[in-house]
Design goal:
Two copies of one chain form a homodimer. The first copy, chain A, is 35% helix and 26% strand. The two termini of chain A are 40 Å apart. Chain A is α/β, with parallel strands linked by helices. The first copy, chain A, is built from 13 helices and 20 strands. In chain A, helix 8 packs antiparallel against helix 9. At the A-B interface, helix 1, helix 2, helix 3 and helix 4 of A face helix 1, helix 2, helix 3 and helix 4 of B.
Chain lengths: 409, 409
């Protein structure tokens, strides 16, 4: 008999029928002897509807009022799910963030969870009741409602699992697990049974949008076993473990990619200390997030400094870069928006040499030119021209044997 | 400089445009130097939408979950109105019932307000901020959300006005005041500048659905001056006063009517003590509300006992009445659904004789037969055949000179 925190996303509770389906799933898990604590997002579309109302009034609405507004979405879904559970004879009780209470700081729209009172939830479990908790929301020290930012319901689920010392936090969504890559790009992409937290972090941050990145960090920090499963298809999903070794014994877990990047190069900057800060400082001040940063060893007294930003920030970043280039007496700024980033991720590469060269060879064999390279312990990212994205993903997927289980080298 | 509690109903905040219009009205009142505390209902249609969702899951949803669900409606409207106020440079802050806090008992769906903390609201007023409070909702001693029943936002407004010792509680709605009768029946119906609480209670309970009856009782109990005004048309509205004398010096304030009644007569029941209880007891146990009750002096050893119920309850009431009639060995049950109740209301009739006879004479002159009569200190109600409703209302409106100010008798 395990204590499970089950989190259901907006699509999973997007209609009365789906809410009833979720109630059935919970009832089934409970009849197998598990104690269940449920976390729910707002019904799909509801948050957008509320955002639209707010923006019709004010394009930059007051953050406190925004949280007051948006948190009503989960209030509806928890009440409906509790009703549906009771309808199938499962005693249930819904709780708002403030009723649990889930204590956060007062950073409206992007609050951080500080503490969770588990008394009510444990009392419910002890009484064989299913508590249904509103995800995404909490309460600040003054009693104001706060929200955790979009996708914050995953974080709520993980935080509750950590506070309750649950055996597993199960994130129910509309995909049945984490895949080796996006099946829309490579139909032979395969669902992973297990993946390590570090791999998941790299995959998530690189664009495999299965889980909110913060919830994965949270789960890793508190060692909460996390499982991603589908609400609509039965199956084991993917377990995200905090074990050191990738159980599948594969070098590479998956291939992530990101179509939203653009590249800027400040060419011919003086090769001296402080240059990186001189360039990235003003970019950060302009509220532009930088992803990859590459600087090669200088060939002469100058060097080229390259970084990538979100494509939406491209024009603003170029303006800032031009200004910096002039100040630094650099040769100029080169930029490109027709690029994508493709990344190999796997804890196996820590202990194996030759992964990078195998990657570059495979890409070269298809005539794909690599424009930038950046590596971490468990990830190799390359920037290539956007038209080669699909070809690159499929080539690497095959080269590292991801379509079949654990046959890579 | 007065302290005003302004309550805006669902139609008044039914769209973004209307919310902005309400914000303008509040800003204008504030710029005239008034301190304003606002109470808001859910956007029109929202409560019905939520009810429909709940009933799709369970025709008799859990009362606690129902309140958790329904209270989200006001949460949306208060946040949007606070945003709209800030947009027009009025500092504002929204509060849920539990944030104020508005303390209630734990009778979900029909909670009663026990106490209101005024600290936050008074602090806002002192800081020239406008607090925007969710109507209809409160919090019970265990921190559960409760609701006051449909139309409870009026009660919230009055209760807040009482707690804050406000100078006036202004109920903004889609009518511009209380009329001498329904203008759809008598186009010459006239808006009353003032009306007493007792008259308003009789008018409200008789079907002039301008204000929720409980809020009027509440206002009377705490001597809160109550004003009904239109959100959409400028004007003074109708002030409901707790002064003894009707200021307009009219005998009759208005004519109410009710089309939803049906009549049952248990004929030939023994004329002995306990008969009324023997008949109404089982009716009450069947959860049927009784409106008028008439029993005449017995001519022989038996009498006829007549009462009216809501037309929706007619069939059930007939079944119960048949059973009772058999038990009491009564002659039988007669019933009619083609009836309406028409009532004259006015504090003036307390000190004036001849009102009833004038009423009956006027009706008789039009050939309208009276089936039942029931009177109170400030009201005379008659039951007539439904087809005569409009004629009766117009006849009485004219007979008592209601179309012109204070020229009756």
């Amino acid at each position: 008999m395990a204590l499970l925190v089950q989190k259901y996303g907006g699509t999973s509770v997007g209609s009365v029928e789906r809410i009833e389906h979720v109630a059935d799933k919970i009832a089934a898990a409970r009849s197998r002897g598990h104690r269940i604590v449920v976390v729910v997002s707002a019904m799909a579309g509801e948050t957008d509807r509320l955002l639209k109302l707010a923006r019709a009034i004010d394009l930059r609405p007051d953050p406190r009022e925004m949280d007051q507004l948006l948190s009503s979405g989960e209030q509806v879904s928890i009440a409906l799910l509790a009703m549906a559970l009771r309808k199938c004879d499962v005693p249930a009780r819904s709780y708002l963030g403030g009723q649990v209470a889930i204590h956060t700081d007062d950073a409206f729209n992007k609050a951080r969870i500080q503490a969770i009172d588990t008394e009510r939830l444990l009392a419910d479990c002890a009484a064989a009741r299913v508590p249904v908790v509103a995800g995404f929301q909490g309460i600040d020290p003054d009693g104001n409602i706060t929200t955790l930012g979009r996708g914050g319901s995953d974080t709520s689920g993980v935080a509750l699992a950590a506070a309750l010392h649950a055996d597993e936090c199960q994130i129910y969504t509309d995909v049945d697990g984490v895949y080796t890559t996006d099946p829309r790009v490579e139909p032979r992409a395969r669902r992973l049974d297990r993946i390590t937290f570090e791999e998941m972090l790299e995959l998530a941050s690189l664009g495999s949008k299965v889980l909110q990145i913060r919830s994965v960090e949270f789960a890793g920090k508190y060692k909460v076993p996390l499982r991603v499963l589908s609400t609509f298809v039965e199956g084991p999903g993917t377990l995200i473990t905090f074990e050191e070794e990738s159980v599948e014994d594969a070098l590479i877990s998956g291939i992530a990619f990101n179509r939203d990047e653009s590249q800027l190069t400040v060419a011919g900057v003086p090769d001296r200390p402080g240059i990186a800060a001189a360039i990235l400082g003003p970019i950060g001040e302009a509220n532009i997030e930088v992803d990859m940063i590459v600087q090669n060893v200088a060939a002469d007294s100058t060097t080229d400094f390259t970084f990538t930003v979100h494509r939406n920030d491209h024009e603003r970043a170029c303006e800032v870069a031009q200004r910096i280039a002039a100040e630094l007496r650099a040769k100029g700024v080169r930029s490109a928006t027709d690029i994508v980033k493709v990344s190999l991720v796997g804890v196996g590469m820590r202990s194996h040499a030759g992964i990078a060269s195998k990657m570059f060879t495979a890409l070269a064999a298809e005539g794909i030119n690599i424009r930038m390279i950046s590596t971490s312990e468990i990830k190799i990212s390359v920037v290539i021209q956007d038209k080669y994205l699909e070809l690159a993903v499929r080539t690497l997927h095959k080269a590292f044997g991801l379509e079949a289980a654990s046959t890579s080298t």
